[in-house]
Amino acid sequence: MHYFNTTDVDGFSKLYRLNMINSITGFKSANLIASKSNNGDENLAIFSSVTHLGSNPALLHFTLRPNTVPRDTYKNIKETQVFTVNHVSAPHFEDAHHTSAKYDEAVSEFDQTRLVPEYKNNWYAPYVKDSPISLGCRYLNEYEIKENGCLLIVAAIEQIFIQEDLLMEDGWVDLTKGSVMAINGLDGYTLPQLEKRLEYARPKQINNK
Ligand SMILES: Cc1cc2nc3c(=O)[nH]c(=O)nc-3n(C[C@H](O)[C@H](O)[C@H](O)COP(=O)(O)O)c2cc1C
Q1: Quick one: which of 8, 16, 42, 199 has the fewest CB in 10 Å?
Q2: What pLDDT sits at residue 208?
Q3: In a 3-state reduction of DSSP, which class is residue 53?
């Protein structure tokens, strides 16, 4: 076993620390956040921090890095209040990764990749065509993480698109049927395989004899 304490971690190079700390909390979801400015400029960027925040009401949150450089996703969301979250499937992961490149605000990542914008249900922000799961989200609030200047964005899930064969009778969504990718660290993409679903866990009977 390797062992590291805080002093060791503080002494790592920036890249080594970034790689290690981004990997050790586990696999993360691969999501493309699409948005559009008031001027009509589309934007697309990959995020690994999208997580549900409760199902009633249906909420999610994601983390934005500190606004020390222009952040188009944040700017568009603040301007228009809406965005979409789109899962990354296996055929799209290299293009999805490329959306993390720093392009000028006027350049759409849709034009720099084979990912295609799709407008549905009068939602101002574009969806990503052929994404197996897409969510239309509305900005609700933001919280500054004082420890590092990141922003935690809270949003309502208002529109849900799920590819037909992924949705089971009880509402459970089989991500593996959509070849939905997960992220290991910041650049390792992996395709999870379902072992099995388990029963709702209840305490075992305690045998007092
Ligand atoms: C795998 C991966 C995951 C990422 N996750 C996040 C994230 O959760 N939050 C964040 O602020 N940036 C994240 N990024 C960086 C953004 O994709 C990148 O800063 C992008 O240029 C932001 O685009 P924007 O300026 O158009 O909003 C991630 C990058 C990669 C490669």
Answers
A1: 199
A2: 61
A3: strand
pLDDT at 69: 84
Nearest CA to ligand 1 atom 16: 100
pTM (two decimals): 0.96
The dihedral region occupied by 104, where left means phi > 0, alpha psi between -120 and 50, and beta the remainder, is beta
Give residue 94's identity as a one-letter amino acid code: E
CB 135 within 8 A of CB 159: yes
Q: What is the pLDDT of residues 118-143, one digit of tens each?
A: 999 999 999 999 999 999 999 999 99
> Which domains does the chain possess?
23-186 (2.30.110.10)
Give residue-wise pLDDT tens across range 56-95.
999 999 999 998 888 999 999 999 999 999 999 999 999 9
Q: How far apart are CA 126 and CA 76, in angstroms?
A: 12
Residue 149: closest CA among 48, 45, 51, 68: 68
For residue 34, report the distance from its CA to the centre of ligand 1, in Å. 12
Strand partners, 36: 42
Q: How far is the CA of 65 from the centre of ligand 1 (A)?
A: 8
Residue from 33, 51, 65 whose mutation best tests the ligand 1 pocket (most atoms within 8 A of CB): 65
